[in-house]
Amino acid sequence: MPAYSRRRETIVWIAGWPLWRQRARRRILSRAAVHVDDHAEVCAGLLIRDVGPLTVPRGCYLGPRMTIDTSGPIVLGENVGIGDNVSLVTGAHRIGAPDGRAGEHHAEGITIGTGTWIGSGAMVLPGVTIGPGCVVGAGAVVTSDLRAHGLYVGVPARHVRDLPLDAVSQEPPTTDGILV
User: Which UniProt keywords apply (predicted)?
Assistant: First the structure.
């Protein structure tokens, strides 16, 4: 592991300690090429792997114990909410020879559209684009692109229904009576 990567991971680890307030956490993360807007929140326990830069724009919320792999680019829209224990994975391996199936490493970016909400324990895999205004249910695994303003649940994440564009609902999203 290059010295820069080790240094960066150490800085992110220190920033993830629960004793820091948001302002201090932002300042510490900035030393690791993680730029957090003054109106965004990054919770304790954040783990960032690899060496790519990351920007957390206005209104974003990154929940506790989140894991982000920045070997590929990650683009977050404004007002993205991400629950606890979510993983954004940009690195993968091609299928290798029989004597070593984890072949050549490659990275593909992830884009998460403005206003999207990703539930606790979800995983977003390499190369995925999540359209604006989506809700991804807890524990879902996003393996392919999600179109805008949809509710997605399951493994792999599947479209359950379209979400309204006009009014703000006070009811939590459900699918067949199951809280998402």
Answer: Transferase
Burial class for 148, CB neighbours closer than 10 Å (0-12, 13-18, 19+): middle
Calpha distance 61→77 (Å, rounded): 11
pTM, full prediction: 0.85
Q: Which of 119, 123, 155 is nearest to 137 (CA)?
A: 119
**Tens digit of pLDDT for each residue in 94-152?**
888 888 888 888 889 999 999 999 999 999 999 999 999 999 999 999 999 999 999 99
CATH number at residue 156: 2.160.10.10
Q: Which residue has the tokens 């977003």?
A: 124
Domain span holding position 75: 3-163
How many CB atoms are located within 10 Å of the residue 49 CB?
18
71 lies in some domain: yes
Question: 159 an active-site residue?
Answer: no
Determine which one of 93, 106, 149, 159 is catalytic: 93
54 contacts 109 by C-beta, under 8 angstroms: no
